[in-house]
Design a protein that fits this description.
Structural class: mainly beta
Largest sheet: 4 strands, antiparallel
Order of helices and strands: HEEEEEEEEEEEEEEEEEEEEHEEEEEEEE
Shape: globular
Number of helices: 2
Length: 421
């Protein structure tokens, strides 16, 4: 767990220390009951490599660009681009300098835009704010080459007084931007140290139709503080699916479906919402999840603000719960791992065996996982470890056409797995 910190350097140090609860046994089960963890395919092997780039000191988010470079968003507000090592030289450069943005947790390109100039979308916010600080500091901005001057696209997204905020972002083929938005509480009840109330857009997968010429990204509320009674009064950002505690990343798959990781609750942070009027101060432990995100469904993390209109959203449901009042995950990923970055493998490496598989990384062990889906994309068929213990502190990943997997580590390095043919 990351402690309250005062500046970017302290943030990086706190994350590097990674003082978390001892991991319990892995739980990898889909909602029908069978365990899906299997042995790694012996024909699929990777080499582990490390890039030590002086410009990269606090990497968090990473994405692969249309210009065949990798872009890294950092906790110091900078973005660094570099070429893959297989090209002979990485040529790192600052796209924007430190302090340009707040802490960056998401980067993406809009595949629907046609321009010779690079346009990068940035999900950024101020983490570890005080309870009395403004609660709606999250933003989505874009920068366009060659000058890369920041332009705010969406403002007013909620932030926790911990490290949950607007995270990963991705565009669909219609030009809609999807935002993995963290919740404000541990399990629905605001209680110290996470004592900021959930609000209309917190703890959800959000959608913003940026292709609409009349799109309004300035989100406003009828209260300055976060309360259960706060209402959103302007802004064209909507809840697509609700009930997520901290979905760090999401991917829009080539099958048209959306998949997201989500971090489960911990008793270290007390509080659980049992109903709209009942709660427990004891807290609850729950597993990380892999979710198939379907519009209109509730996934189990309570939000009493939205519970005013949909009472099921007042109740915490673990991913293990079989209750029909929430949509269950397609896989449970284990307790206290912090399953984070996720992507779709599209390279024809290994004779194309992994095309269409999901790849995700966990923070606790730095383990890289392969998820094989059913033909219809509705279920998990198997989960296997591609590489064990890359490094504790792994956060995000990006996949490249040659089949490599690039991983950010908040301690200041980029690790990558390259296919061993």
């Amino acid at each position: 767990m990351i402690g309250v910190v005062r500046n970017y350097e302290d943030e990086a140090e706190a994350i590097k220390e990674n003082k978390v609860i001892k991991q319990s046994e892995k739980i990898i089960t889909n909602r029908n009951g069978p365990e899906y963890e299997i042995e790694r395919d012996k024909d699929i092997n990777f080499n582990l490599n490390v890039l030590d780039i002086k410009e990269i000191t606090m990497p968090a988010s990473i994405t692969y660009g249309p210009d065949n470079r990798l872009y890294v968003g950092q906790l110091d507000g900078s973005i660094v681009a570099f070429q893959q090592p297989l090209l002979g030289t990485i040529k790192p450069e600052y796209i924007v300098e430190p302090g340009t943005f707040e802490q960056i947790l998401g980067l993406t390109f809009n595949q629907n835009e046609s321009s010779e100039d690079i346009t990068l979308y940035v999900s950024h916010s101020r983490l570890h704010t005080k309870t009395e600080d403004p609660p709606f500091q999250g933003k989505i901005s874009k920068i366009k080459g060659p000058k890369f001057k920041p332009e705010t696209v969406i403002s007013g997204l909620p932030v926790q007084n911990g490290d949950h905020a607007n995270n990963g972002i991705a565009f669909d083929q219609k030009g809609r931007l999807f935002i993995a938005q963290g919740g404000s509480t541990n399990a629905g009840l605001p209680i110290k140290p996470l004592d900021r109330d959930e609000t209309p857009l917190s703890g959800a997968i959000l959608v913003a139709d940026l292709s609409d010429p009349d799109f309004d990204g300035e989100i406003k509320y009828d209260t300055e503080s976060a309360t259960h009674q706060t209402n959103k009064i302007s802004g064209n950002v909507k809840v697509f699916a609700s009930g997520f505690r901290n979905p760090f990343d999401l991917v829009i798959h080539s099958n048209g479906k959306i998949y997201s990781t989500d971090n489960g609750p911990s008793k270290v942070f007390r509080g659980e919402s049992i109903s709209c009027f009942e709660d427990s101060s004891l807290g609850v432990d729950g597993p990380d999840e892999l979710n198939l995100v379907v519009e209109g469904y509730y996934y189990g993390h309570p939000n009493r603000n939205r519970g005013r209109f949909y009472k099921d959203e007042c109740t915490y449901y673990s991913g293990k719960s079989s209750s029909e009042n929430h949509r269950q995950p397609i896989a449970l990923l284990g307790n206290f791992l912090s399953a984070n970055g996720i992507g779709e493998y599209y390279s024809d490496a290994f004779d194309g065996k992994m095309i269409g598989d999901l790849i995700y990384v966990d923070f606790k062990n730095g383990e890289v996982w392969r998820v094989e889906l059913s033909d219809d994309g509705e279920r998990v068929e198997a989960i296997s470890s591609l590489y064990e213990k890359v490094v504790t502190g792994a956060v995000d990943l990006a996949l490249t056409p040659d089949g490599s997997i690039y991983i950010t580590h908040v301690g200041g390095a980029i690790y990558y797995l390259s296919p061993r043919e």
